[in-house]
Amino acid sequence: MAIMYPQRILGVHVNTFYVSTPGLTFRIKMLLGAFLPAGVVVAKEDQNKLYPLSNLFSMVLMETGYMHLQATKPDTIGAALNQNPVSLAAYILEKFSIWTHRDNRHKPDGGLLHGDFPISLDNLLDNICIYWFTNSITTSVRFYSEGFNKKTYGKLDTIPVRVPAGLASFPQEILNLPKNFIAHKFYNIVTYNEQPAGGHFAAMERPALLAVDLHKFVTTLEKTT
């Protein structure tokens, strides 16, 4: 909406943000940051978000298998998941496990049964039941195949977001870009706040933190417009 109808959008607040189609300047900056001392290209406190690049590329390879499958064969994986609720639960819960904290990958139960896991089992099962009882996992994953195409990634995704933006950066987000990198996509960043905890599912994990950040963004936006 912020890209397609900027004249109708007062501002946009997000907690998952990245640059899907980086330009030449972005790529050069990323490479320079890998060789220059911390603090030159990226602030010292943000250095671990991108570097070393080997860790970043390893993470991308490890955690994007689902994306390639859903973008190329959504009906195949959808048909398989619709046959068994246990299969569906395993597929979905694996993402909740690792995307709330990367260290959960090394735990026997994925951290899901630990008392400090930020999302209750009831809420996790509610999420699974929505897909199971509505028989909608196939149409859900098909969203990826509809989005990963030349029209979207070749045109729409290259358009910058020019409306005022509020960015909430959660430490366990899958890909967490520093402010000076994400500025290649969001041209008018009003607030960019580092959060003390939380990952990809911030609204379920840390709703209070997300709500406070949203309120800060709206307050700041009202003062500047």
TrEMBL record:
GO terms for biological process: epoxide metabolic process. The keyword Zinc does not apply. The keyword Hydrolase applies. One of its GO terms (molecular function) is epoxide hydrolase activity. It comes from the Eukaryota. SUPFAM superfamilies: alpha/beta-Hydrolases. Keywords: Hydrolase. Belongs to the peptidase S33 family. This is Epoxide hydrolase.
